Amino acid sequence: MSLPPEKASELKQLIHQQLSKMDVHGRIREILAETIREELAPDQQHLSTEDLIKALRRRGIIDDVMKELNFVTDSVEQELPSSPKQPICFDRQSTLKKTNIDPTRRYLYLQVLGGKAFLEHLQEPEPLPGQVCSTFTLCLHYRNQRFRSKPVPCACEPDFHDGFLLEVHRESLGDGTRMADSTTMLSISDPIHMVLIKTDIFGETTLVASYFLEWRSVLGSENGVTSLTVELMGVGTESKVSVGILNIKLEMYPPLNQTLSQEVVNTQLALERQKTAEKERLFLVYAKQWWREYLQIRPSHNSRLVKIFAQDENGINRPVCSYVKPLRAGRLLDTPRQAARFVNVLGYERAPVIGGGGKQEQWCTLLAFLCRNKGDCEDHANLLCSLLLGYGLEAFVCVGTKAKGVPHAWVMTCGTDGTITFWESLTGHRYIHKPASPDEPPVAEQPKPLYPYRTIGCVFNHQMFLGNCQPSDAVETCVFDLNDESKWKPMSEEAIKSVCAPGATTSLPPFPPLCASTIDASVTSNEIEMQLRLLVSEHRKDLGLTTVWEDQLSYLLSPALASYEFERTTSISAGNEEFQDAIRRAVPDGHTFKGFPIHFVYRNARRAFATCLRSPFCEEIICCRGDQVRLAVRVRVFTYPESACAVWIMFACECAP
């Protein structure tokens, strides 16, 4: 296969870089000297090329080089100009996972060269080979490109050694096909968002740190290469406490023909910070004025949940409108209801708080929420609202309370016919809102609300913020005519746009794209099912019972599990008749069939089994006694983006009377 000259030149350069990195030339010189000393006869004047290659093969040099230069088979295939470039990842084992680097584009090569001072893990013992241990994973996002490091064992000095090749492009200016020069790149203010996740031995994830790396210092460095020491701070209540340090090296590829002076780079960054600070100051002044006007309408408004700002994981106050943006899921999600199901299966966990004193507020940036795979109700509502906006719906996040005055956030969509629909992001349930009229006489029958919401203080999306200024903030009597300023006090859309529009300020975290699931649904379903069979058999053995599995009955449970997930996604029940008919045929006359379905959003079989045993009905099936008892269990894992999954399990038994 022939290569274009620029590809051949690029390939040679990459191979040369790798050989230099491995110090192959030095090792060849050593072997040459050693061979001449040991093997060259006195009457021989020179070594042949064959003799030298044999010596290199014998000492494993050629094998080492071929292992390191591990090219994928499609590495030199031409791509269509319109096809998106795959992110190129470098790491210690394989220098070139992909070699389809476009020589007309500019790349930033970011290397993470170890960590230190992670003092929380100072006493962490060295893991034994094969031992399961807690791990750190570093997740990166830059201009619609996402990367994830290999998990490394948690330690005081974690062994991070990963590299990521980030494409630097400026498609918004229409010159996405041209190689960006130093001046153009200096105007690209997007930071590299780095999120550090800890995964414990049970698979539970914790957000350790969230950091925005300003990479443009490399533009003023000699040869376009610079090394940085990044101090990671904690999150939430620990946002002022250092959790560790990462050593990072940045390098431009291809090398810059002309670097900028460090003074020019620093001046540009200072100007951006100044403009951002001024915009944020003006918005704060406007927000205070808006709040004063809102309180003048009715003093009791002071007790309503009107949330204009919210703290992110780094403890920074940001306008709530900046947490929402139209988000397209590509081909990963097909419908708004499927999007609601995806958000629902992401785990729910309130922000951790040290000691008492009520709920700790923490609205996570989208990358931190997705990488952690769980978050609070506000995180779920912000993501669902963003996805519904991406599907072209008029969606808003609602902030209010549930029963007993517990603060809560959910999503609302406004139909073109005036229909108001509430979406509960934690369950995927949808509710049609029909307002009760407070002016009706007491004898008049009012529609009883099915939703769990009690009060509502404000609604917002990426462009609008409206405070509820109706006499009562009760949801059941609320009228959602958002254009009526006597019922909803709006904020200036221009003011919101000045700090929340994409690119408005450099402090605005960019939204990452969703990633496809890496979970193999069939393999995972089988693994969990085998583990559950083993756990059931052991449990029954402890009770002095034998266990007989009925494979055919287990298989017949599959349609029911598929039907349950379909119903959760579409709110339509289907296929139940066929399932019931199959079970009636499979169970002998006079025998009893019992089944217990249950749903989880995690894949830990032991934890799921412990939860199932807490149900008296499930325990009755698992511990069933009698003649001709046959047990069945079926597991079906349904995968969603970001490796989120819905796990359905059904235990069943048939026995003689």
Automatic annotation (TrEMBL):
Family, as annotated: Belongs to the CEP76 family.
Compartment annotation: Cytoplasm, Cytoskeleton, Microtubule organizing center, Centrosome, Centriole
Residue stretches making up the CEP76 N-terminal domain: 10-69
GO biological process, one term: regulation of centriole replication
The keyword Iron-sulfur is assigned to this record: no
Identification of the protein by name: Centrosomal protein of 76 kDa
Every CEP76 C2 domain range: 100-257
Domain Centrosomal protein of 76 kDa C-terminal per the UniProt entry, residue ranges: 518-655
An example Gene Ontology CC term for this record: centriole
CEP76/DRC7 peptidase-like domain residues: 361-491
Keyword Cytoplasm in record: yes
UniProt function note: Centrosomal protein involved in regulation of centriole duplication. Required to limit centriole duplication to once per cell cycle by preventing centriole reduplication.
Top-rank lineage group of the source organism: Eukaryota
Organism the protein comes from: Callithrix jacchus
Keyword terms: Cytoplasm, Cytoskeleton
Oligomeric and partner information: Interacts with CCP110 and CEP97.
Gene behind this protein: CEP76
